[in-house]
Every structure is written in C-alpha cells, then in structure tokens.
Design a protein that fits this description.
The chain is built from 18 helices and 13 strands. The chain has 526 residues and is of the alpha/beta class.
Length: 526
C-alpha cells in the first residue's frame, strides 16, 4: 500500500507543469524558512535575556533594603536615571541589530533577484526555489546542527581528569592541582622548573585545555616541552561550602601550599602563570608576601591589573547611576545561608557594556554570515567554533563573593600613585613595586584586539615597575586557542613579531639561565 502511495505521489509530481512544481517547491521552502527564522529570533532573544531574570531577583532583594535608607525623592531620581541608562543601552543594541539585519537582507535581496531572473529566463545558476531552500537550510543549521555540534565537542574540549593525561598532585579544602602530562613523546624533566597555571574564576579552566587533540592547548604547550606543568582547579562551588566563602587570603595560602609541594618535588622555585582574572589573583598572592621564596617568576596573560583603565567598561559604569554600582545586585543567597555571585549575571554585564556586538539581533546575523558558505551544501561547523561556544555557554560559574569583590574594587578604584591596589590582604598593602624588590621576573602578555581586557589595563604595572611585554595578535582568547598550536605564527614556545617571547619561551629561557648559574661552564667559572 505504501509503495502504491509513493508511486502515485511521484507520478503526480512528474505530471505537474514545471511552473506549478516550482511554485509548490517555493511555497514549501518559504514556509520552512519563515518557521526557522521565527524560531531563531526567539532563541537568540531568550538566551540573551535569560540572566535578566536572575538579575531582577537580586535587584528587587537589594532595593528592598535601599528603599528604607534613601529618601523617596532620591529613589525616584535614581530610577529615572536608571531608566535613561537602560534606554541608552537598548538603543545601541537596536541600532547595531537593525544595521546587521539591513546589510544581510540587502545582500540577500540582490541574490534573490538574480535567482528569480535565472528562474524566469531559465538561465544557468541558482533558481529562486534553490535560493529559498538554501536559506531554510542555513537557518536550520544555526538552530539545530550548531547547538548539536557544540554539545558533541565536549569529549574533545577542555580538561578530562579521568582520561589518564593528568595526575592529581595536591588538594586543599578549596582547590586541587593536577600535573598535565605531555601528549607527545616528550618526557617530563623532573628536575625542571615547574609552572603553576591559575585559570580565571568566571569562565573556568577549560579554555586552557582548549582542544588537546588538535594541538590547541595552553597547558599542553608547556607540558609538551617537558616542563613540569600544573593546573590549579577550583572545586565545585555548588557543593563545596569552603569555596562559597573563599577569600583572597585563603586563595593566597592555598597557592602557597601548592608551591611548597612543587618546589619540594622539583627542587626549583615555581613560575606562577595567571590567565585573565587568574593573573590578577596570582598577582595579589605574590604582593601579599605569602609566596616569598617559593615563586621567582610571574607570567600574566590578558590579565586586568587595573580595571579602571578598561575604557569601555569604565564608560559603561560611569553612565550607571552611582546607587546601582553595587556588587549586591549580582549576589544570590544559597540554601545554606552562604552568598555567591551569579556567574551568568556577571558575564551579562560584559555583554551589556559591548551591546553593539552582543545584541541578540546582531549576533543572529553574525552567526548566519559565519555559516553562509555560498552554496547549497551543508555548512561546515569547525571544532574551534564549537569549542569556543561550549566555553562561553557552559563554563560560566558562580563566584565567591569575596574574590569577586577584589575584582569589583579593581574596576571601580584605580591603583594609587604609589602603586598600591585598592584593597589589602592579611592587612597588608599590595604594591606592584614588591615584585621588583623581590626580583620576580615578570612577563605581561596582552592581545592586540582584546575587547574584554584593554591594553592599558593589562600594562598598568609598567607605571611602577619594569616588565617584559609580549603582544599577541587577535582577541582575548587567542593565546589559549590560535597561538597554542606549536606550528602557529605566534607559537608560545617561540620568538615572533618584534622579537616577542611567548610565555613558554620565557619559561624555558628562565630554566636555561638558572641551570647555567647552578652549573657554570669553564669560561664562566673562571
């Protein structure tokens, strides 16, 4: 019976005049395109607005207290200013979204006209039905194939500590450290200089083991050179109360514990290596004095050392009424009574300050352009694109309130003229000059097109101390992704550009110099 129906359908289709067949095909493709386009609009707006509801809950909770301590007239004025601020942010997003939409559909209108001419005059090339079907296929790739590829990349992306490539080397109530084993034939130099890598709190460690199977991994760029390489991992904040209440002092003390382990194991002082917020936290630990005698070198990659020099974020904060420049609007209480900062809300703040590039309509058309390969074949989704989005979507972690307060202070209060950070640890001033006093070798790596950490914010210590500087092309995550490949133009273990040293090269040279000092040759001994 089914075969008879199929045969009848085929015969009906073949007997139709070409024009009617074309119209039916076109109508079906247009319906599919319309449904997919509507779903895409809803999906992108929902994903953008999801943190809003969490932020709104924290806002209402905080305002219940502030309304009692502020005169009603002041509250009305503050709310009017907040409304004006919101309208300005929305206006930026609206204009960028409309511009992206008009550019995209303007280009599509030209292609559609050409497809109509091909169809009417029976010329070679894409017909209007083909064009419409391709649009539907493009939208369906964005809606279904892309999210599927993002989820499917998980086994290849990031750290998997149970796969045999890592060895647990230490633990505290709040952190674990793992040794990263080489993925090549290079062995580990047990008497080599160890490096302890500190990832950011907000977006976690996985960006630093981006795609090891593709030779795109920051930590393996060290390990594959035979360097004793270790990564500090924060325990799960949802299930570990000690992480929920973590302070800057505890962070420094736990880092000291790990550095003691590494120095004892390898017989050499540690190179501390911080990425993004991890670099800022590593710096505070060093400046506190708790790591004296254990760490003799610091490498910071795209780390904000003075957040007030991040132009875009500071401008955003300055337009926000002073009443609402409060970390409490991102804090959420836990069932056990502890308070943590919602990671999704914090990442949403960065989206709002870059609204021109993060508005849902803009990102929709940006992604459509990425997958438009100009032909009727399925769009190819690269592992790199899938892994980057897995990081951005799934690695947003809640944060300890005290640690976030340190970063918040750094973005609202500048480093003073003497070089002191705007807060203390252990009751001690944190001054950049301490690095120089303790002869800590210091490398600052920044990204030329970083729209998250401005160059000026990363290089702030240079106003007070000397340091080696390396500039990498591309954006914020490129050091851990594009340039972690050993055969890339700016490979981390090489010199490149204006005689810049990559962070791995910097470490290898330190190790070599220290070995020479320890075992001088005949010429140097004389």
């Amino acid at each position: 019976m089914k075969a008879q129906i199929d045969d009848a359908t085929v015969k009906f289709w073949q007997d139709l005049p070409d024009f009617q067949r074309l119209m039916l095909q076109l109508g079906a493709a247009q319906m599919s395109t319309g449904v997919a386009y509507g779903n895409a609009l809803v999906k992108y707006h929902q994903e953008f607005m999801q943190p809003f509801w969490t932020a709104m809950e924290a806002f209402l909770s905080t305002e219940q207290e502030k309304l009692l301590s502020h005169p009603p007239a002041d509250s009305v004025q503050d709310y009017i200013e907040l409304l004006q601020f919101n309208l300005q942010v929305a206006e930026k997003g609206f204009h960028s979204g409309m511009k992206a939409m008009l550019e995209y559909h303007g280009d599509r209108a030209n292609k559609a006209m050409q497809a109509w001419l091909n169809t009417i005059f029976k010329r070679e090339g894409e017909t209007i039905a083909d064009f419409t079907e391709n649009e539907a296929r493009l939208l369906e790739t964005l809606l279904y194939a892309y999210p599927k590829a993002i989820r499917a990349i998980k086994p290849e992306y990031g750290f998997h500590f149970d796969d045999g490539g890592y060895v647990k080397a230490g633990e505290t109530d709040r952190f674990l450290i793992y040794q990263v084993l080489p993925t090549n034939t290079e062995g580990v130099r047990e008497n080599g200089k160890p490096v302890l890598i500190v990832p950011p709190y907000v977006l976690g460690p996985n960006i630093l083991a981006f795609l090891p199977g593709e030779n795109k991994s920051y930590v393996h760029a060290y390990a594959n050179q035979g360097i004793p390489t270790y990564i500090r991992i924060l325990k799960d904040i949802d299930t570990t109360p000690a992480v929920q209440t973590l302070t800057g002092e505890q962070d420094a003390l736990d880092t000291r514990t790990f550095c003691e382990i590494l120095k004892k194991r390898h017989g050499q002082p540690v190179t501390l290596n911080g990425f993004c917020q991890g670099g800022f936290v590593a710096m505070t630990g060093l400046l506190s004095g708790e790591l004296d005698g254990l760490v003799d070198a610091l490498v910071n990659c795209v780390a904000p050392m003075d957040g007030t020099r991040s132009t875009a974020l500071v401008e955003y904060m300055q337009h926000l009424p002073s009443r609402f420049r409060d970390l409490g609007y991102a804090v959420k209480p836990l069932p056990n009574g502890n308070r943590v900062v919602d990671g999704k809300v914090m990442s949403w703040v960065y989206k709002l300050k870059s609204m021109e590039k993060e508005a849902p309509l803009y990102t929709l058309y940006r992604d459509l352009k990425i997958f438009d390969n100009g032909n009727r074949g399925p769009a190819k989704i690269s592992k790199t694109a899938a892994a980057i989005n897995n990081w951005l979507i799934y690695d947003r972690n809640d944060l300890p309130e005290a640690i976030t307060k340190m970063s918040f202070d750094s973005y609202t209060i500048p480093v003073d003229r003497q070089g002191n950070l705007p807060f203390k640890l252990f009751g001690r001033e944190l001054n950049f000059k301490r690095l120089q006093e303790k002869n800590i070798q210091f490398l600052i790596c920044y990204a030329e097109k970083d729209d998250l950490v401005d160059r000026e914010a990363a290089l702030a210590p240079l106003d007070y101390i000397s340091a080696e500087v390396t500039c990498f092309p591309k954006g914020h995550g490129a050091i851990a992704t594009s340039w972690s490949r050993p055969d890339s133009a700016c490979a981390l273990h090489t010199r490149f550009g204006d005689n810049y040293r990559g962070p791995v090269r910097f470490h290898l040279d330190l190790e070599k110099d220290q070995k020479k000092k320890k075992n001088p040759g005949p010429a140097s001994s004389s």
